[in-house]
Amino acid sequence: MIRLLIADDHPAFRRGLELMVAEVDDITLVGAAATGIEAVELAASEHPDVILMDLRMPGLDGMEATRRIVRDANGCAVVVLTMFEDDDSVFAAMRAGARGYLLKGAEQDELERAVRAAAAGEAIFGPEIAARIVAHFATGAGSRVAAFPQLTDRERQVLELIAAGKGNAAIAHDLMISLKTVRNHVSAIFAKLQVSDRAAAIVRAREAGLARES
Prior knowledge:
Elements (H helix, E strand, L loop, with lengths): L1 E6 L3 H12 L4 E7 L2 H11 L3 E4 L8 H10 L5 E6 L4 H10 L3 E4 L4 H12 L4 E2 L1 H12 L14 H11 L4 H8 L3 H15 L4 H10 L7
Helix pairs in contact: 2-3, 3-4, 7-9, 7-10, 8-9
């Protein structure tokens, strides 16, 4: 029996998933979380095999919740289930440790296959996401050596957005994190790159090819 945890802040969507699980013989629901914090706590207490994780939730977003769950080695696989299909979200989820990525609106049989595959240790992606991943690596975008290895993945994301000319508020919105967290990342980036201001950080980032195309 596969133990499943659902993490999504929309009650109606959670209820729909719960009804789906009730019809499946080899999957049992062990909990439903409405926030990222609840997801982390339930992952620790209920020991699910698989978590279906939304990305945008109040308090702690699904990306950070995934990172914490994977870091704490609870032994469960996280499958992202979200409306966001942009490359940034997909690859950020993969870096956070997600075992799969599906879009909301996936058919029930696709969700069931994803849960079973993740529980068996496989990586699973919806057809739209798989196409994006293939295209990403086919164009060579995934073959570049990461610039500034001293930065964390999140700090590199923030620096990339800084290089694109975005302010802290816009970065917070794009990455679904708080403004205070963005400021902390910016301070850490300046220290690690040994630059004194935003302009100098932008120059370093663009020289390394980190600026995103608008």
